[in-house]
């Protein structure tokens, strides 16, 4: 069955001849797919404009004069409103499909709904999930900003420290990265955090070495720092 029209409530008048002087007539409300009227009527009214009349084809034999229906009204199904938690779950499913842009939109929709609800744990979860999407999209400043908000509400949230540390690492701010990643590792002994911390230390040391060598070449002096 064509899914269009499913859930829509139709109100019709029906009669047995085009003059609308009925030998048999009536009025009824029904929804597509619920079996309240014969399938021929469902098919006839699916694309009918309100106020128009249509002859129904292939009606049962007991309608000896044929059957006509007038569409009186058509009420579409209500738009389902998602809760913040449902937006989070929808975003999580999109992340699993690696559709990070759409997932980010779902997390942000959930956050907008939370502005009135003040559900701290769910808000933090949505912000961290949004930060994950931004990480995958390489939007490091936005990752850091989102994690700033999370850490202002929960300073010991290891996942926020980890994601902000990774953002700082990719921005070349290695001291800040090391600080955040060290704190995250103290809170949660996790191999991903340990690897990121090790990388940040390595990148910082390489940067210092490069800077020292460039300085020495420029001024022809030996320095230790």
TrEMBL record:
Gene3D superfamilies: Tetratricopeptide repeat domain (1.25.40.10). It holds the Pfam family TPR_1. It comes from the Eukaryota. SMART domains: TPR. GO terms for molecular function: peptidyl-prolyl cis-trans isomerase activity. The keyword Isomerase applies. Keywords: Isomerase, Rotamase, TPR repeat. Its EC number is 5.2.1.8. InterPro entries: FKBP4/5/8-like, TPR-like_helical_dom_sf, TPR_rpt. TPR repeats lie at residues 158-191. It catalyses: [protein]-peptidylproline (omega=180) = [protein]-peptidylproline (omega=0). This is peptidylprolyl isomerase. The lineage of its organism: Eukaryota, Rhodophyta, Stylonematophyceae, Stylonematales, Stylonemataceae.
């Amino acid at each position: 069955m064509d899914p269009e029209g499913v859930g829509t409530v139709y109100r019709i008048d029906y009669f047995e001849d085009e003059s609308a002087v009925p030998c048999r007539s009536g009025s009824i409300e029904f929804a597509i797919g619920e079996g309240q009227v014969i399938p021929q009527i469902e098919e006839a009214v699916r694309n009918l404009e309100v106020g128009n009349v249509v002859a129904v084809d292939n009606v049962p034999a007991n309608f000896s004069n044929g059957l006509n229906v007038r569409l009186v009204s058509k009420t579409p199904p209500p738009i389902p409103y998602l809760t913040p938690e449902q937006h989070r779950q929808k975003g999580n499913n999109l992340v699993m499909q690696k559709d990070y842009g759409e997932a980010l939109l779902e997390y942000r929709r959930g956050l907008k709904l939370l502005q009135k609800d003040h559900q701290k744990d769910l808000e933090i979860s949505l912000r961290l999930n949004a930060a994950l999407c931004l990480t995958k999209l390489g939007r490091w400043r936005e990752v850091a900003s989102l994690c700033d908000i999370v850490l202002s509400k929960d300073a010991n949230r290891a996942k926020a420290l980890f994601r902000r540390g990774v953002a700082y690492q990719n921005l070349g701010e290695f001291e800040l990265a090391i600080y955040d990643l060290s704190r995250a590792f103290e809170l949660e002994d996790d191999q991903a955090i340990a690897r990121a911390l090790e990388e940040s230390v390595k990148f910082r040391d390489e940067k210092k070495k490069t800077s020292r060598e460039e300085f020495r070449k420029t001024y022809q002096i030996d320095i230790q720092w």
